[in-house]
Each structure stands twice: as C-alpha cells, then as structure tokens.
Amino acid sequence: MEVSYIKLVEIAKKNSFAVGAFNFHNLEVLQGIIAAAEELSSPVIVQTTPPFINDAGFKPVIFAAREIVSRCSVPAALHLDHGNSFELVQKCLVNGFTSVMIDGSKMSFEKNIELTKKVVEISKAVREDIAVEAELGSIGGVEDQIIDGGSGKIIIPEEAVKFVEQTGIDALAPAIGTAHGIYKSEPIIRFDVAAELNKLIKIPMVVHGGSGLDVETFHKLIQLGFSKINVGTELKIAWYKALENSFKNGKTDPLLASAEARKAVKEIVIDKIKIFGSVGKARDFINIKD
Ligand SMILES: [Zn+2]
After folding, report:
1. Could you tell me the residue ranges of all domains in the chain?
2. Catalytic residue (choose from 55, 81, 192, 290)
3. Measuring CA to CA, which residue among 157, 170, 277 is closest to residue 222?
4. 141-175: pLDDT as tens digits
C-alpha cells in the first residue's frame, strides 16, 4: 500500500528506527526490494534517479513502479532521488509521487535555498503532505553518474538551521562524511556534526551513501535523528554478481537469470532492514489514512 514518505519517516523518527530507501534501476531490483520488505513486514521507500528515468523513459519507469508500490502489502513510498530540475520535480508531482528530493547542493547556499524553496512551494500547492528532501553541504562520491561535490563538503549546522527555516523542507540530507558509491577507505563520519544537527533541527534527516557503512554507524546515526537511509550501490553489486554467476552456470534464460538477481537484491535488503530496526513496523501504519 502506498503511504506518504513523510508519514514513514516521521513515525520512524518517533520510534527510533529508520526506513530503508532503496534505489532501483530495473524491474527485478524493484521486485527484490519489495519482496524483502513484505517478508519482514517492514515499511519501505523505493527510489530512483534522473539518469535511469531518462534512460528508460518517464512513463515506463513511473507507471510500473507505482503499480508495484500500490499493490504491495506493506507501507511503501515511491521517491525521486537527486531530482535535478524543477521540471522533473513537477512531472513527478503530477504523476502521484508523495515525495521528491531536490538536489541543489552543487549551487551556492543562496541559490540552493532559492531552488529548494520554489520546489517546496509547488509541492505543497499540489498536495499538503508531499515531502521535499534537500541536500546541504555536499555529499561526496559518484553514483548513477551523479557526481556529488567530488570529495564532499561537511554541512555547517548554523547554515542548516537557516536552510530548513527558509525553505520549509520536510527532510534534510546533510553532508556529514558519508559518500555515494563504494568507499575506497574508511569513511570519517562526523558524529559531532550529526549530534549538533539533531539538537538544532526538528525534521527527520536522511543518510545518503548507506552502502558499505557498518552496523554501529547506522545505529548511531538512527539515534541521532536519521530516519531514512539510502542504499543503492550494494544492490547494484548484488545484481551484477548474481547475473554473472547465472551466466557462468549456464542460466542464460532471462527469466532464470532475473530470478537470481531478484533473490540477491532481496537478501541485501533483508539484511539492511534488520539493521535499520524496521522489522515488523508495518503494523504501526495500519490505522493511518493517507
Ligand atoms: Zn544520494
């Protein structure tokens, strides 16, 4: 069942767990994510980025994803990750998204505020409970051809307060040392900055670059007010390894190979959902009317 992003992350924040937000690039990855959430009775966010939407076409991606999300047995939301233009955001909003991320993190602080504020205004005009997520500072690394500020730039908590107040966003993705893609060395997570943000900011926060972080880091971040955790790269790795294995073992039929990929993705998502503490939390949403 489709539940709005904001309900998912607010309930998660109140109950000290996080909702996993998993990136998909094709049908079997999306199905693997949903199958894991259903097996563990966990709420889930599925999200995708502009490069995939551009590659496969807006309608094929969004219509298939909405159909799968609305049919699933657990509370789920479809989210635009790293929205890169006002136009794409508008298109998502009129096609039933309950949340979008607008990424103005490569712009100046003032320009980021200006763009984000505009997206918040248009979103709330479409529907009151549409959530807007935005990034501040710059989260490093590369994923889906999204180069996010090179090596990254840690958020300044005072700027974050101003940013949240002036834009009216619902969730903040702060740069605290996590990075997109694969960590080439041990990431230095600024828990001190996260703690400061948790004191200053009341809205839920989002971890970008969840692939490869350890259990302890996740748990600390959840305690510090991070209620949505993005995982993309680990699913891609699981997908291609499963396909590689299938082909090696002579399973070249697309249906057989896809089934293996779906299973591999599901296993990763199950592992993450357990770490994020959202097992069985689907029941917390039963009485919520969206
Ligand atoms: Zn991201």
Report:
1. 5-285
2. 81
3. 277
4. 877 666 555 557 899 999 999 999 999 999 999 99
Distance CA 195, CA 203 (A): 14
What kind of fold does domain 5-285 have according to CATH?
A: TIM Barrel (3.20.20)
Q: What is the pLDDT of residues 179-193, one digit of tens each?
A: 999 888 888 999 999
CA–CA separation, 8 and 13 (whole Å): 9
Say whether 162 sits in a helix, a strand or coil: helix
- pLDDT of 185 reads 85
DSSP state, 145?
T
Question: From ligand 1's centre to the CA of 140, what distance in Å?
Answer: 9
Determine contact, residues 266/35, Cβ cutoff 8 Å. Answer: yes
Sheet with 140-143, side-by-side order of all strands: 146-147, 140-143, 179-180
Please state, in angstroms and rounded to a whole number, the distance separating the CA atoms of residues 143 and 185. 17
Share of the chain above pLDDT 70, in %: 96
Q: Is the per-residue pLDDT at 284 higher than 60?
A: yes
The Å distance, Cα 206 to ligand 1 centre, comes to 9
Please say if the pLDDT value at position 290 is more than 50: no
- Is 192 among the residues known to form the active site? no
CA of residue 40 to ligand 1 center, whole Å: 25
Residue 2 CA to residue 77 CA, distance in Å, equals 6
CA distance 146 to 50: 9
Cα of 184 from ligand 1 centre, angstroms: 17
Single-letter code of the amino acid located at 240: Y
173 Cα: distance to centroid of ligand 1 (angstroms): 8
